[in-house]
Amino acid sequence: MTEIRSRIEGVRQRIRQAAAECRREAADIRLVAVSKTRSPAEIRQAVSAGLTDFGENYLQEALPKIEALRESGICWHFIGPVQSNKTRELAAQFDWVQTVDRVRIAQRLNDQRGNQGKPLNICVQVNISREPQKAGVTPEQAPELCRLIMDMPRLRLRGLMAIPAAGDTQALRSSFESMCELYRQLQSQGLPLDTLSMGMSTDLESAVSAGSNMLRIGTDIFGPRN
Ligand SMILES: *Cc1c(COP(=O)(O)O)cnc(C)c1O
């Protein structure tokens, strides 16, 4: 068994355990392997261990990998900061953009997605810990941006994404819980959300227990980054 394969088995085991502890189905929790800094060969190992979803943070780094792995049928998620001069290629090459936090970016992605193929899946990034320098809308701004995206025909609004501030377990838990509360509130207002993207290598258990259904895991799948 390769190292990547056995790490993936370890992550799956943690997800099963975390789900069981809060009486959830592990199958309802989608695993996105964060492949920034990783080579196509490493990504292929993860594909052969059964992973289908991969996340990249930088467009220029991602493009050659997407090209090299074209035949793998990977579902690509963009999870880095979106610059407006990069939207054309994001709209053309990715299946998801999880880090939308401005209407202007959403509008450009919609205009540039083109009419062939499927709509681009979108998550609105929420700055849940209200950190001044951090990307993401405030929780108060999320409903309006979600509604605007819902009306864009080439985009499919899927949910919310967050990267909480580093902190102790208690602080993290409370950020994850606020995200879940916001997610449910938007659903109860009629927004068709099915994705709550939160939880990384070190905090996946807290994220699952708060209600995350999409984990973004890098280190614990591929090993430490340089
Ligand atoms: C790098 C990254 C991750 C994965 O982090 P790990 O700690 O390596 O699991 C998840 N989400 C985002 C947005 C990232 O940039």
Structural notes for this entry:
Helix content is 42%, strand content 17%. It has nine helices and eight strands. It has an eight-stranded parallel beta sheet with strand order 7-6-5-4-3-2-1-8. β1, α2 and β2 form a beta-alpha-beta unit. α4 crosses α5. The chain is globular. The two termini are 23 Å apart. The mean pLDDT is 97. The structure holds pyridoxal-5'-phosphate (PLP). The site of pyridoxal-5'-phosphate has 12 residues, from β8 and α9.
Quick recap of the structure?
With 226 residues, this protein is an alpha/beta fold.
Radius of gyration (CA) equals: 17 Å
- Could you name the ranges where pLDDT drops below 50 across 5 or more consecutive residues? none
Mean pLDDT: 97
- What overall geometry do the principal axes of the alpha carbons give? globular
Strand content: 15-25%
Structural class: alpha/beta
Write the layout of secondary structure elements.
Elements: H1 3-21, E1 30-34, H2 40-48, E2 53-56, H3 59-68, E3 75-78, H4 87-93, E4 96-100, H5 103-112, E5 120-125, H6 142-150, E6 155-161, H7 169-188, E7 195-197, H8 204-210, E8 214-217, H9 219-222
Parallel strand pairs: 1-2, 1-8, 2-3, 3-4, 4-5, 5-6, 6-7
Helix pairs in contact: 1-8, 4-5
Bound molecules: pyridoxal-5'-phosphate (PLP).
Pyridoxal-5'-phosphate binds at residues 34, 36, 57, 79, 163, 200-201, 216-220.
